[in-house]
Design a protein that fits this description.
Layout (H helix, E strand, L loop, with lengths): L2 H24 L9 H4 L2 H20 L3 H18 L1 H4 L4 E2 L3 H14 L11 H13 L3 H27 L3 H11 L16 H6 L2 H13 L13 H16 L1 H24 L4 H4 L4 H15 L3 H15 L5 H14 L4 H28 L6 H27 L1 H33 L2 H21 L13 E2 L1 H13 L6 E3 L5 H8 L15 E3 L2 H5 L11 E7 H10 L7 H6 L6 E7 L2 E7 L3
Parallel strand pairs: 3-4, 3-5
Antiparallel strand pairs: 1-2, 5-7, 6-7
Helix pairs in contact: 1-3, 1-4, 3-4, 3-9, 4-8, 4-9, 6-7, 6-23, 7-8, 8-9, 8-11, 8-20, 9-20, 11-12, 11-13, 12-13, 12-15, 13-15, 13-19, 16-19, 18-19, 18-20, 18-21, 19-20, 20-21
Length: 597
């Protein structure tokens, strides 16, 4: 393709992204949306698809500056997709941990909590800066912070591969795989205000710093005290990761320790090997471990998480096997299956993971065309999977949620190695087909995986998990409910504990006449008793406030198909003599429920 034609094509791609953003911005969310995909205009998705098609084609077929344009186009498009809750003016997104993070940020801004008192204040600090510098609402500041922390992922994955393997094809393929956002699994890692997940997107920046330190021997440029500038980059990026979430920082320590172990063995076994030319990471392992220890060991949240893990290891029926069995049974009850869900959520990740596993095996067997330097980096990461996989096994038995968060970190590294693995696969395929034919097959496979990946970046009914879009009506309904509730009367939700909204509205410390974040004063109604119409007996107090939002109804009645709560029971509240509606708007209702008169 002629350069002028290529430039025009890429320009059309960028114009398409801009048009998509403008159309999405002109069509903000006006009510609760269970799916950002369905809620966003069809035209937006059409022009985004055009931009991604141009980006994939350019990234695979071009090299140098033109390939850079394609990578930039793809990264911009995916970032725009991730930004849709911001672009379409969501009040907030997230009703679990996100609400607690909102409360912590509120506490920081009000002065009730200092940033350093939190275990992971990074995202909250970003939102606080937006609030004080730009006057951005706290909720919106957190959503923007989510996007800010995502950008390093699409930026540093191809940069890390460029330093590890150098080839333009590997760099382009790694960029395309990064657009699939494989670390998000919607089980324990999410695209939203969720610091553990947000930290995953900073990991490629740390890996890039580590690779830069190992590859670029710095003998002249030195900082004070003889510190290498690349070492300083490792420490600074790791510090940023620590402040966003220490669990992912701990995984980096494990990875660096594994690299140190491989270097130690290489120095004992080989007389001539590229690893012998690499500066050691022994000091980095100690320094990063010290940083983590100083930050974490004195924090009560870390100690409670560690004790919870130990309890999970010792207790029975806690591991992920029990949880998977329960979810599989529930899916069958509503017409789904684990096999169907696996295809939707994990098929693309399984394909990429398989290719990376084959790459590592081929390197260990000496059956690749990689040079010795590139094989060294694959070996560093490949041997790093061993302790990281061991941690996954421990988490799987003890705390299943942590196990799937560990999978998220592992898939960051898999995303990086995927560029090298796919380059080897394409090279081998080109010996059977022509080079254009191999590129076409690779583009087709990656295109299908890219569609699958982007379809499940956000939660939606497609994966039996409606989006957690928080509307102004929901927030104002809960505010009125907390402000006007009688003292001492608990709040109960329909499969959802309202205390999270108390966190988001009043801060974690609470206070005054509100429920003040005390989970003992909130809970959920008993599903079977409530569905039978026995409203007063559905919660273990003489009186309580029953709160239900449009999200609750969508989740329990539409998506779960009345598996736990019956539509008739919810509608029957309006005519029940022991239930009085006290707060109501289009998407929120609160009833005062008391014993039968």
């Amino acid at each position: 393709m002629r350069r002028s034609t290529l430039n025009v094509t890429v320009a059309i791609g960028f114009i398409a992204v801009a048009i998509g953003i403008l159309i999405a911005r002109a069509n903000p969310a006006t009510a609760y949306e269970s799916s950002v995909y369905v809620g966003s205009p069809t035209t937006t998705w059409a022009v985004f698809a055009l931009a991604l098609a141009v980006a994939v084609g350019t990234t695979l077929s071009c090299r140098g500056r033109q390939q850079g344009y394609g990578i930039a186009l793809g990264g911009t498009t995916v970032t725009a997709i991730v930004s849709l809750p911001v672009i379409r003016n969501y009040r907030f997104a997230g009703m679990g941990d996100a609400m607690t993070h909102l409360g912590w940020t509120r506490d920081i801004i009000s002065g009730g909590t200092a940033p350093h008192e939190l275990f992971y204040p990074g995202l909250h600090a970003i939102a606080t800066v937006f609030y004080f510098v730009g006057g951005v609402p706290i909720e919106r500041g957190l959503l923007i912070g989510m996007v800010v922390l995502f950008v390093p992922f699409v930026l540093f994955v191809p940069l890390a591969v460029r330093d590890m393997a150098g080839g333009g094809l590997a760099v382009g393929l790694a960029a395309i795989v990064s657009w699939m956002v494989l670390p998000v699994n919607n089980i324990a890692t999410f695209m939203g205000v969720h610091t553990n997940s947000n930290a995953l997107f900073l990991v490629p920046a740390v890996v890039f710093a580590i690779v830069a330190y190992l590859r670029r021997r710095s003998t002249v440029e030195r900082l004070p005290l003889g510190l290498s500038p690349f070492s300083a980059l490792v420490y600074l990026t790791s510090l940023a990761l620590l402040l966003v979430h220490p669990q992912q920082m701990f995984n980096i320590i494990v990875l660096v320790a594994a690299i140190s172990g491989v270097q130690f063995l290489a120095r004992r076994r080989f007389d001539d090997h590229p690893m012998l030319e690499h500066p050691t990471t022994y000091a980095h392992t100690i320094v990063l471990g010290g940083m983590f220890g100083l930050w974490a060991l004195g924090n009560e949240r870390f100690r409670s998480a560690a004790s919870g893990l130990v309890y999970g290891l010792l207790a029975q029926d806690i591991g992920a096997g029990t949880e998977v069995d329960q979810r599989g049974s529930s899916l069958t009850d509503i017409g789904g299956s684990l096999a169907e869900l696996f295809v939707k959520m994990f098929l693309d990740a399984a394909i990429i993971g398989l290719l990376v596993g084959l790459l590592i095996l081929a390197v260990w067997l000496g059956r690749t065309s990689l040079d010795a330097e590139s094989r060294s980096f694959v070996n560093y990461v490949g041997f790093g999977f061993i302790p990281l996989g061991g941690l996954f096994a421990v988490y799987f038995v003890g705390t299943p949620t942590m196990a799937f968060r560990q999978v998220g970190f592992i898939y960051v590294l898999i995303t990086i190695l995927a560029g090298i693995a796919l380059a080897q696969f394409t090279g081998g395929l080109s010996r059977l087909l022509t080079r254009p034919g191999a590129n076409a097959v690779t583009a087709l496979v990656l295109g299908c995986c890219l569609v699958l990946g982007l379809m499940t970046v956000f939660a939606s009914p497609l994966i039996y998990n409606p989006g957690q879009h928080v509307t102004p009506e929901m927030m104002s309904g809960y505010e009125d409910g907390f402000d006007h509730g009688a003292e001492g009367v608990p709040y109960a939700g329909m499969g959802y504990d309202p205390y999270r909204y108390d966190h988001g509205i009043n801060g974690i410390s609470g206070g005054g006449d509100t429920i003040g974040g005390a989970s003992a004063s909130t809970g959920t109604v008993n599903a079977s008793v409530f569905s039978s119409g026995n409203y007063s007996g559905a919660y273990p107090t003489d009186e309580y406030y029953f709160v239900v939002t449009e999200w609750d109804k969508t989740k329990e009645i539409d998506v779960y198909q009345e598996l736990n709560y019956r539509r008739a029971a919810v509608e029957g509240l309006d005519t029940h003599p022991g239930a009085n509606k006290v707060v109501s708007n289009d998407e929120f209702e609160m009833y005062a429920v008391s014993s039968e008169p």
